[in-house]
Amino acid sequence: MSNKMWEVDPETKSKLLDIQKTNENNRCVDCGAPSPQWASPKFGIFFCLSCSGTHRSLGVHISFVRSITMDSFKVQEVERMAKGGNKPWKDFFDAHESNTLQGRTFDECTIQERYDSDAGEEWKERLTAKVEGKEYVPGTTSSGMAARAKPATSTSTSRSQTPLGASSAAPPSQKSQNEAYFARMGAENANRSDTLPPNQGGKYSGFGSEPMPSSSSNSNSIPGVDDFQKDP
């Protein structure tokens, strides 16, 4: 790796000491302790040893921790420290829409809430654009909190599908009940008399039986009262 990619430690320390004289960098950005000896080039901020441990626990994708007396800094990292600053970062956090909507401030939040946030992601993107001399273009910032909403959609969908599945299964069940009912009625009807009308206990038509003979055929097969009177 080229030596130009890294600042020499004595020169780096001198530059960082000068940067610490501005933007309230002479105190820990998170707890206010004096003479902070640690920094996060990603945010361009200074903090104390105690708070550096919490920053490390966030992961390097959120806050990359370096010692201002023992570690080497890339030229671009020193530039980020110069163009960042404790006070500008805190002011940006307090003014960010995601925080004003929730009514929360930098001092009220935990270190986790400060840096793993939409405000934190946007601050880092803006700082990168400033260091590279480019215009900031809003990107897709997604904090751990903002990305957690989607799974609920699939859950609600699956729940809403459950009653639909149950209702679609209902018609076959009802159909089976209807078939059993008519089968039972048909069996009972089969035991009824073929020679009597339904209202006197005779067989109904329509339950698997043959249609009742017409009135004219009945008069031919069964003698009526008039027939006996005419032909005793």
From TrEMBL:
Q: Specify residue ranges for compositional bias: Polar residues.
A: 152-165
Q: Which UniProt keywords apply?
A: GTPase activation, Metal-binding, Zinc, Zinc-finger
Its cellular-component GO annotations read: Golgi membrane
Protein name (Swiss-Prot/TrEMBL): ADP-ribosylation factor GTPase-activating protein 1
Example of a GO biological process term: regulation of endocytosis
Q: Which SMART domains match?
A: ArfGap
> In this record, what's one Pfam family?
ArfGap
Q: Which PANTHER family match?
A: ADP-RIBOSYLATION FACTOR GTPASE-ACTIVATING PROTEIN 1
Gene3D superfamilies in UniProt:
Arf GTPase activating protein
What residue spans carry the region label Disordered?
134-232
Molecular function (GO) terms for this protein are: GTPase activator activity; zinc ion binding
**Per the database record, which ranges form the Arf-GAP domain?**
13-136
